[in-house]
């Protein structure tokens, strides 16, 4: 798989060693299992080499030392990739101030229900959902493009199936 910077087109090439990391909130059910099943089918068809599924919390405390500091580094990598490609991941990531019971507050990062990160070897080549400010490229479109040599993320074929809702609950 490769993605060009100008058009954000995914082209199918099993030789490139594409892997997908799926990040999801719990419970892993409903639309999330649909995406996992599609990734399994793409692996069986040798469109992708492999995929992983990792759960993450709905919110991550941004300020101070937390158990999720490593996860914040991963999110930062995703956001850097988006910025380098003229895209943004906000929404579905959102930062807000949460009030605590003792009158204090803390900054938290709200995670999307699901996020797919595509890697060509060790290189991050795509994060979905993402937006250019006008159009959002969804996980469903990404999976559709992987399964169809002719599909591109800029010009979907119009027959896309919305497999997931990228934020919120199903």
What does this molecule look like?
The protein is of the alpha+beta class. It has helices at residues 31-44, 69-84, 139-147, and strands spanning 2-3, 10-11, 18-24, 50-55, 59-61, 94-99, 105-110, 114-120, 123-128, 130-131, 136-137. Strand 1 and strand 2 (10-11) form a beta hairpin.
Overall SS class: alpha+beta
Strand order of the largest sheet: 4-3-8-9
Instruction: Characterize the quaternary organization of these chains.
Output: single chain
**Can you summarize the main beta sheet?**
4 strands, mixed
End-to-end CA span? 29 Å
Number of strands: 11
Mean pLDDT: 75
- Number of distinct helices: 3
Estimate percent helicity.
Answer: 10-25%
Low-confidence parts: 1-15, 150-170
Which geometry do the CA atoms define?
A: globular
Q: Helices and strands, in N-to-C order?
A: EEEHEEHEEEEEEH
Strand content: 25-35%
Determine Rg (CA atoms, Å).
16 Å
Summarize the structure.
By secondary structure, the chain is of the alpha+beta class.
């Amino acid at each position: 798989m490769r993605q060009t910077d100008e058009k954000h087109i995914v082209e199918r090439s099993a030789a490139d060693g594409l892997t997908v990391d799926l990040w999801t909130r719990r419970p892993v059910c409903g639309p999330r299992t649909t995406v996992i099943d599609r990734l399994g089918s793409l692996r069986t068809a040798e469109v992708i080499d492999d995929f992983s599924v990792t759960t993450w919390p709905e919110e991550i405390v941004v300020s101070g030392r937390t158990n999720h500091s490593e996860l914040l580094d991963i999110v930062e990598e995703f956001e850097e990739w988006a910025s380098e490609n003229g895209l943004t991941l906000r929404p579905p990531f959102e930062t807000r101030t949460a009030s605590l019971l003792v009158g204090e507050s803390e900054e938290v990062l709200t995670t999307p229900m699901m996020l797919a990160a595509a890697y060509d070897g060790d290189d991050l080549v795509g994060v979905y959902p993402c937006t250019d400010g006008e159009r959002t490229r969804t996980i469903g479109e990404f999976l559709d493009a992987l399964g169809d040599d002719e599909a591109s993320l800029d010009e979907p074929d119009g027959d896309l199936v919305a497999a997931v809702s990228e934020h919120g609950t199903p």
